[in-house]
Give the backbone structure.
Amino acid sequence: MMSSVASTSQGVRLPLLMVGSLVALAVAIATATAIGDYTIGLGTVVLSITNELGLTGAELSPIEQSVVWDLRLSRALVAALAGAGLALSGTILQALLRNALAEPFVLGVSAGASTGAVCVIVLGIGAGSNALSFGAFAGAFAAFGVVALLSNGATTGPSHTILAGVAASQLFSSLTSYIVTTSGNAEQVRNVMFWLLGSFGGVRWPDFQLLLIIVPLGLAVCMYLGRALDAFTFGDEDAAALGVPVGRIRIVLFAVTAMMTAAIVSMIGAVGFVGLVVPHAARYVVGPMHMRLLPASAIVGAVFMVTADIVSRVIVSQQTIPIGVVTALVGVPFFAVILYRARPQA
Amino acid sequence: MSILAENLTWGVRRRTIVSGISISVERGETLGLVGPNGSGKSSLLRLLAGLKRPGAGTVTINGRDIAQVPRKALSREVAFVQQSAATETSVTVLDVVRLGRTPHRSALAGWSARDESAVVKALERVDMWGRRQQSWQTLSGGERQRVHIARALAQTPQVMFLDEPTNHLDIHHQIEILRMVRDLDQTSVVALHDLNLAAMFCDKIVVLQSGSVFASGTPEDVLTETLLKSVFKVTADVTRTAAGADMHIRFMP
Ligand SMILES: Nc1ncnc2c1ncn2[C@@H]1O[C@H](COP(=O)(O)OP(=O)(O)OP(=O)(O)O)[C@@H](O)[C@H]1O
Ligand SMILES: [Mg+2]
């Protein structure tokens, strides 16, 4: 009797699933580190990493060791955390806004980040990739501020917040276009476009360190509020009737998702589709209750993003496809399968 | 006194929707709230349950002013069943009823034996235990209603507010649910449209009209032919047995 009530209809055992997907993640990261224009054997990859961690002292070519450690591993780990963070943000926003189409950029964060980045690239405010990241981050938060203001501190209900997000996105997109068209040259426009479509090209260890703080912290906050998120199933008023402080939870979670998304976008650009598709995929497997859904989304997002990064590097030789293009190309067919299989049984 | 509302007033912009309502409900009593569409029944229930803040007046539940009680603590004592609940999420019946335990669980606490028994009892009570694994989306209107009542029961409240709980229910379940509400130890306030059911199952009745109390008292005292004529604009024939226990309202075409 006990177990029949304690487990939900989705009978997949969570621990098994978690272990399985952690293994998948490890394999994906190892593969991402081995594969590239210059393929390195898996054994060398493992040894390079253990060397750097001071666990082994194997004789390796310094170049290979450096490619593995300085370029590829940091990139793969950033991809994993970025995927996890975007998927988590999407899950939260879909629950809070009760909208299946909600994704991390629904609050205008990506449009704001673009404006910030474009200001840095085109207007030449500041210099270097740090300035770019900082500009993107500031822009993202400015956009979130506009949304918060327009939706009255996000207290006015889901559809209002979505409309405010749309308005902020439009505002910042047109600002971006304005800046690009009035003062950009062809080269700059190309840079901006490339940045907007997303790239892991520039990421290094400091990016990883920042995400290693922000994403797990975000996951922890979301898990802590996971039960409260479940209570939003039948709407805000119903959540309040179940004792959930609706306004406070909403503002905390909006801020957490804006924070994660802004940090991620400022590093890798506005990579779409992960935050929209992954929560649906995860929900399809573990069901809609958040204590299971949140960790599942995070890990599926991580695997998905690392895989997309691998694809982006190998699909055309000697060239890297923008990551946002790959997530959409891989994501759409995958999504189609879920939509088809999850259709209501008529 | 289990529920005491004094001089409640609430409105939006210039329009006053609930004006100067005072009611009191004894512990264990079932109060029926009747009145025409738009007379303010749902609004009053929300004020009583603390889901809306009154512009003026106070609500006291079990001796405490609910404006002073934290949300979560209040939901351990007070449950509210909405007039119509909907979701797009594909949750199961069990998921929904388990939500009723939300106010009793801390953020990371496990599922306790007490949670378990509350959920099982609630599902059995509304006759939905056998369908606990079914997706909420696929339930009939009446089954959804019963699941929501079960969720409120799983909250193990002392006070329940139900907004037209018998909507969509077949006559058997209308009677079952109202009998259950009446027989529970809890204090209940129920908005109802079926006056015969209200007369049958409520200890007291409050008739609302345009946001104010038009009449209140026992069903026999309140539901008179003259009142039905003036509030609901219908001609009715009210018959009662000698004991006064069974009254019956027959509406004239
Ligand atoms: N937030 C609001 N803004 C404007 N008007 C409102 C609001 N809430 C309720 N009203 C109005 O207040 C009146 C009372 O509404 P309420 O829902 O309380 O009626 P009711 O007695 O429950 O009616 P019904 O029998 O149809 O359920 C209605 O005329 C409604 O239009
Ligand atoms: Mg109503």
Q: What stands out?
A: The two ends of chain A are 31 Å apart (CA to CA). The CA atoms of residues 220 and 333 of chain A lie 31 Å apart.
